[in-house]
User: Which sequence fits this backbone?
């Protein structure tokens, strides 16, 4: 990290709590706008409850499409938090400091949004309590723990709870600062949440251990979550889904879309909150270099998926790949996803000047996520669109319905609204982490230059 | 630990070295190490103030939590399958490989939950104490709290002022001497 700023504690407090204590007009405009989009999605959800899943264009074979694609996409985005936060904490990477909390918050809201999609998809979500808890004794049926569809909620619930608790523990010191600076109802609010934290040596020692211990515990969960989501597909016998490469393929795809989403979020935070002293081109350069490794690893697993499907020379697997690459509309979506998910971002991220250009990083990270959404669509939809013998092949082909697109837009609005509301009440950049960086930074004379250095214990 | 009337005093410093000197001087004046605490708005390196290291038992919590989580996972998987035995695809009723996923997630959730509770407990939180405190600590100042100082408040104040304290806060939060 070559860019260093001397930041006094008072300035850090003022800069990072400004939005929590003041409400600019744009906040109301953004909140109302996002609320309206989310409201439109709720209306669509209501229509689905009345008229059923046929509104989505689903048929007997095509029972999963846009909603499940969106579910997998948001679970993927949620992997950003742990990737950035946990791995960078464990490796004591200095550039993590302004990035960790925003990534963790994105995780929580992305995961919570993802979890709504299977509920919407049940068609009769009011029956979910009967399905989860054994109320229905008379039928003698209970969710089968041998099904991947049961492993899924256990994994997502574990990851969501863990991430939320992780955010809260790391937030306590900043809540104490907010308590000290606030007045009125805010002082009571932050004081209650801060639990009386005062920054004793014991409390700080445990905070540091908490960061490392929780990071180490959450990392295996992070790997397991998207592996289990991939088994929703891989445990089925459907050609095109039944592949052992799905777990690492999905996990690395999640990391790709998640870290790209973090880059997008960091750019927005820098511009909207004027955090030029905290989020610097160095951070985007580091994210870009990480993304180069991730996107190439993703490419490897994508090629493996294709190879595993074709090498066995099974007619049903080859049929799925023919559908994906050569048949309308997938023959448009497939090259589009390769270009947006890999070629465009990778071409730009190779160059340092580009990685340090925040506008270009913002747009390339969005393009990468467009590609990753399309990638999930290509993975999920063609195998169940594939007309095989004895599978209702007289039914019309599936087409994307407007109601699905409104639900997708609503999910983006929900996540954005969640992050916006969190940033409204709590500092989105960890203040104590930034201050710790100030305490530990040094400069050393090496020959004719003074270079930045960091004290490590 | 709750402090009683006129038993605690807080010195406010700007320099970590002065804080370390103040702690040494307070010890030399007969104040116990366990009665001296620092308040900072950011973690300082271990031993920066020359005070005694803190011992904790946080590492017990993830193990206990993992065991509890594993037990709950076993209860859910074995209990539901025995209560509602469904033969699917000819697989055994209690098939270990698919149970592993729920057991694993339960173990990790238990470990993480107990770790979080352990962090809060070992940090001695919640602690809505009435001990002296100064909001300037959040602005980068360093607080040095001397508790269990009944009858020796003036001596503690003198030592801290001589060591470079810029302000002294007594028992009542916000009240300055």
Assistant:
């Amino acid at each position: 990290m070559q860019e260093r700023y001397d930041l006094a504690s008072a300035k850090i407090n003022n800069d990072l709590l400004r939005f929590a204590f003041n409400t600019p007009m744009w906040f109301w405009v953004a909140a109302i706008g996002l609320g309206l989009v989310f409201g439109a999605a709720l209306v669509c959800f209501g229509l689905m409850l009345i008229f059923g899943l046929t509104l989505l264009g689903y048929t007997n074979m095509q029972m999963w499409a846009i909603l499940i694609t969106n579910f997998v996409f948001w679970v993927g985005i949620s992997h950003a938090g742990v990737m950035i936060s946990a791995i960078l904490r464990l490796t004591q990477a200095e550039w993590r400091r302004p990035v960790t909390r925003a990534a963790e918050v994105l995780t929580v809201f992305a995961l919570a949004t993802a979890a709504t999609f299977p509920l919407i998809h049940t068609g009769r979500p009011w029956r979910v309590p009967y399905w989860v808890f054994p109320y229905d004794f008379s039928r003698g049926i209970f969710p089968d723990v041998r099904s991947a569809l049961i492993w899924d909620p256990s994994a997502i619930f574990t990851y969501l709870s863990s991430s939320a608790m992780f955010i809260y523990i790391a937030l306590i010191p900043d809540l104490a600062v907010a308590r000290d600076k606030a007045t009125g109802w805010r002082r009571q609010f932050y004081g209650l949440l801060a639990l009386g934290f005062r920054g004793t040596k014991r409390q700080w020692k445990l905070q540091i251990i908490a960061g490392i211990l929780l990071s180490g515990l959450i990392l295996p969960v992070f790997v397991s979550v998207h592996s289990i989501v991939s088994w929703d597909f891989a445990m089925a016998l459907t050609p095109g889904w039944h592949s052992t490469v799905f777990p690492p393929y999905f996990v690395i795809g999640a990391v790709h879309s998640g870290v790209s989403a973090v880059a997008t979020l960091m750019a927005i935070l820098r511009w909207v909150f004027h955090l030029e002293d905290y989020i610097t081109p160095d951070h985007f350069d580091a994210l870009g270099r990480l993304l180069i490794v991730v996107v190439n690893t993703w490419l490897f697993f994508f090629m493996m998926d294709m190879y595993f499907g074709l090498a066995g020379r099974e007619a049903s697997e080859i049929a799925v790949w023919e559908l994906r690459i050569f048949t309308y509309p997938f023959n448009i979506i497939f090259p589009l996803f390769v270009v947006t998910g890999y070629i465009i971002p990778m071409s730009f991220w190779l160059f340092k000047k580009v990685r340090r250009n925040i506008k270009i990083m913002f747009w390339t990270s969005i393009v990468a996520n467009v590609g990753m959404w399309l990638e999930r669509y290509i993975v999920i939809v063609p195998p169940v669109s594939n007309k095989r013998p004895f599978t209702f092949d007289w039914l019309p082909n599936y087409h994307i319905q407007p109601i699905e697109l409104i639900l997708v837009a609503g999910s983006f609005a929900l996540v954005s609204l969640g992050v916006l509301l969190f940033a409204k009440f709590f500092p989105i950049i960890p203040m104590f982490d930034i201050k710790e960086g100030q305490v530990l930074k040094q400069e050393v004379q090496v020959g004719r230059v003074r270079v930045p250095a960091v004290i490590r214990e | 630990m709750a402090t009683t009337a006129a038993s605690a005093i807080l010195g406010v410093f700007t320099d970590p070295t002065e804080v370390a000197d103040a702690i040494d001087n307070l010890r030399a004046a007969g104040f116990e190490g366990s009665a001296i605490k620092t308040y900072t708005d950011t973690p300082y390196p271990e031993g920066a103030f020359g005070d005694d290291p803190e011992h904790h038992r946080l590492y017990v919590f993830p193990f206990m939590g993992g065991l509890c989580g594993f037990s709950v996972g076993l209860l859910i998987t074995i209990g539901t399958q025995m209560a509602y035995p469904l033969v699917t695809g000819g697989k055994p009723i209690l098939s270990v490989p698919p149970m592993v996923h729920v057991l694993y997630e339960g173990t990790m959730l238990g470990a993480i939950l107990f770790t979080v509770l352990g962090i809060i407990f070992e940090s001695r939180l919640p602690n809505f104490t009435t001990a002296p405190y100064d909001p300037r600590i959040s602005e980068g100042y360093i607080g040095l709290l001397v508790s269990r100082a009944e009858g020796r408040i003036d001596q503690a104040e003198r030592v801290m002022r001589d060591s470079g304290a810029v302000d002294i806060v007594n028992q009542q939060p916000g009240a300055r001497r």
Summary: The longest strand of chain A covers residues 441-446.
